[in-house]
């Protein structure tokens, strides 16, 4: 399909490869091999990067911005399985096809690595296979956390856990960017839009968080938010 890379002309601007997840911990020479096969891609808000079931001919690392990762259920409904922001790798598909769709929810910058060239580097660059193992382990942890969210936690616990997840991904103790819509959050957490909005309002009313804007939150009481996420307490009013 053409839409995956239709408007993604390579850019001459180069990211700081030393800070990219795929290069982290590798030596200069090893990172140089990765730089040699990479191109920089940009997607505008609302554009599709790739679709579920398409041939996984590229691996991507998010440099900036956020994408939503979606799967379609047999009845046509959408399930958001995650959000990818700076540092996330996309397209590590062992069966050769993408297992989810990736769509930009903000303007996004990515490093693209051709799959065939990348696979050859995994066999030849010391430390790269170990680095990918660490990335895959992180993805598995996030998947397990979402199973817990959907299977065992109530609305307050889910929203509190989600805010803490965003804070962790953004390496922030207090200020959290929320680029996704309330509908996206609901699809990810298995909640209605109304429940997401009502729960955020409840957390704000109890001074656990502040909501200075629709796309931002400030954690005022991190210990309290962690307590709520764990299910040890609730702020029922």
Rounded mean pLDDT is 84
Query: Structural class of the helix and strand makeup?
Result: alpha+beta
Helix percentage? 25-40%
Distance between the termini: 51 Å
> H/E element string?
HEEEEEEEEHHHEHHEEH
Largest sheet: 4 strands, antiparallel
Oligomeric grouping of the chains? single chain
The poorly predicted ranges are 1-13
C-alpha Rg (nearest Å)? 19 Å
Q: In percent, how much strand structure appears in the residues?
A: 15-25%
Strand runs, count: 11
What shape does the CA trace take? globular
Query: Looking across the biggest beta sheet, what order are the strands in?
Result: 1-8-3-6
Secondary structure tally, helices: 7
Give a short synopsis of this structure.
By secondary structure, the chain is α+β, with helices and mostly antiparallel strands. The chain is 38% helix and 22% strand.
Sequence-ordered SSE layout with sheet pairings:
Layout lengths: L27 H10 L1 E5 L4 E3 L7 E7 L2 E6 L5 E7 L4 E2 L10 E4 L3 E7 H10 L3 H25 L2 H15 L5 E3 L4 H8 L3 H13 L3 E5 L2 E4 L2 H9 L7
Helix pairs in contact: 4-6, 4-7, 5-6
Task: Report what the structure shows.
By secondary structure, this protein is of the alpha+beta class. 38% of the residues lie in helices and 22% in strands. It contains 7 helices and 11 strands. The strands form 3 sheets. The chain has a 4-stranded antiparallel β-sheet. A hairpin with a 2-residue loop joins strand 10 and strand 11. Helix 4 crosses helix 7 and helix 5 crosses helix 6. The longest helix has 25 residues. It starts with 27 loop residues before the first helix and ends in a 7-residue tail after the last helix. The N terminus is likely disordered.
């Amino acid at each position: 399909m053409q839409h995956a890379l239709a408007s993604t002309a390579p850019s001459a601007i180069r990211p700081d490869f030393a800070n990219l997840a795929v290069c982290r911990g590798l030596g200069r020479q090893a990172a140089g091999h990765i730089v040699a096969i990479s191109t920089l891609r940009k997607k505008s808000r609302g554009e599709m990067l790739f679709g579920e079931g398409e041939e996984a001919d590229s691996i991507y690392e998010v440099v900036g911005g956020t994408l939503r990762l979606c799967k379609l259920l047999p009845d046509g409904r959408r399930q958001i399985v995650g959000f990818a922001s700076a540092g996330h790798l996309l397209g590590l598909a062992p069966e050769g096809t993408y297992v989810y769709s990736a769509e930009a929810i903000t303007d996004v910058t990515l490093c693209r690595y051709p799959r065939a060239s990348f696979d050859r580097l995994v066999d030849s660059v010391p430390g790269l296979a170990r680095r990918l193992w660490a990335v895959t382990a992180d993805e598995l942890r996030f998947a397990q956390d979402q199973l817990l969210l959907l299977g065992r936690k109530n609305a307050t616990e889910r929203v509190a856990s989600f805010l803490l997840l965003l804070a962790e991904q953004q390496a922030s103790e207090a200020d959290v960017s929320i680029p996704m819509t309330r509908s996206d959050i609901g699809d990810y957490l298995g909640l209605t839009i109304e429940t997401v909005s009502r729960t955020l309002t409840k957390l704000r009313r109890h001074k656990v968080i502040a909501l200075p804007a629709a796309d931002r939150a400030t954690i005022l009481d991190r210990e309290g938010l962690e307590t709520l996420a764990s299910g040890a307490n609730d702020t029922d009013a």
